[in-house]
Amino acid sequence: MDRPTGTVVTSPERMITEARKAFFVMFGFLAVVWLVQLVNYTDDYTPAREYGVVSGDLGSLPHILTAPFLHWSWAHIESNSGPLFIFGFLAAYRGVVRFLGLSLLVAVTSGLAVWFFEGAHTDTVGASGLIFGYFGYVVVRGLFDRHLIDTLIGIVMAASFAYMLTVAVPGTPGVSWLAHLGGLAGGLLGAWLFRERRRKSPTDDKTPTSPSALPTNTSRADLHKELGDLGLL
């Protein structure tokens, strides 16, 4: 059966290729973060103090791009590594290039939230803003892209990790809830900005002979194709 014009074709081979890329990208990213932590530790956390985001400090504004690589302790980086890999992989497996754009957006929204609204002279570092951004992106991406599997993944992740939202609200001691909230907002925004655009078919403007039949059949074909790609049919 021919796939209807105007829909996005995602072959199993392409999905596997992108998933493989996503795995190595996240593995490499974590390796860099841990290497930076080793340097950070041996230098008595001087890099964290010098390259973190300090609220209201104009000179620290570029550090929005360096702060996610830095952590205050081994416990800090250990608590971030698992969620960073899981959500990062799920955010990247549909396309690494789109994921890199998302990462930049989330780093900026998280960093700006800290820079504008955090308490005076507070130095903030850590990858948790990215984690919340990837989480928000994964939860809603399927709705914007109209992918059944991604929608189901989003529902599972939302149900499994909803407790994370408790540290994205005011009053949580010892964490930068503003970095979390800013990252989450960036992830939700990224899901819309980086959504898949489906090219409109010339026949879309025409009224079909049977108004109810064509959309139903097309949706069913899309569903069967996506399940088949994942080996579920």
Automatic annotation (TrEMBL):
Record domain Peptidase S54 rhomboid: where: 63-196
Primary enzyme class: hydrolase
Residue numbers spanned by region Disordered: 200-219
Keywords: Hydrolase, Membrane, Protease, Transmembrane, Transmembrane helix
Topological category with respect to the lipid bilayer: Multi-pass membrane protein
Superkingdom as given in the UniProt entry: Bacteria
Any GO BP: proteolysis
Residues that span the membrane, as ranges: 22-41, 99-118, 124-144, 151-169, 175-194
One Pfam match: Rhomboid
Bias (Polar residues): 208-219
EC annotation from Swiss-Prot or TrEMBL: 3.4.21.-
PANTHER family per record: RHOMBOID PROTEASE, SLR1461 PROTEIN
Protein name: Rhomboid family intramembrane serine protease
